[in-house]
Amino acid sequence: MKESFESIVEQYHLLIYHVMKKLNIYTNVDEYYQIGLIALWEAHEHYDKAKGKFSSFAFKKIYWSMISEMRRQIKTKSAQYSLTDELLHTLQTEGKDIPISNEMYEEWLAHLSPCQRKWLIGYIVNEKTLKEIAEEEGVSVNTVKQWRITAIKKLKKIMPL
């Protein structure tokens, strides 16, 4: 008979903190603790005694769940920065650096039509191809290209050059 999950948490909750320390996680501790709990629950549900000690299995499950979350957050941040890179490359004047803030992103989105926002979010943030966006929206690739062209034109007008 399996132990209850509550007793597993009692025994292994320090393991979650150990993994966070090993990965140098000192921000979003509550979020990562929850990820650790979920991984511990998954380990509890899928553990096979024939494959080794539970503590080793749980450690690996918690460790890789936290690594996956860290990668997801880095990818999300990179997508935000790729927005900056794309627009700065397109909108930047020679010799001028244009600082971009979250407020600026919000302002940009407010100036765009719903279709232009679909391009901006799909292409820049979610890193989808123009073809993928077109298929999802049920339009041609040329239509998505037009959304891009008009979005960039609008953004050029509101950029602080």
From TrEMBL:
Keywords for the protein's UniProt record, in alphabetical order: DNA-binding, DNA-directed RNA polymerase, Sigma factor, Transcription, Transcription regulation
A GO biological process held by the record: DNA-templated transcription initiation
RNA polymerase sigma-70 region domain residues: 8-73, 108-157
GO cellular component terms, semicolon-separated: DNA-directed RNA polymerase complex
CDD domains for this protein: Sigma70_r4
GO molecular function, one term: sigma factor activity
NCBIfam families: sigma70-ECF (TIGR02937)
Protein name: DNA-directed RNA polymerase
Organism name: Thermolongibacillus altinsuensis
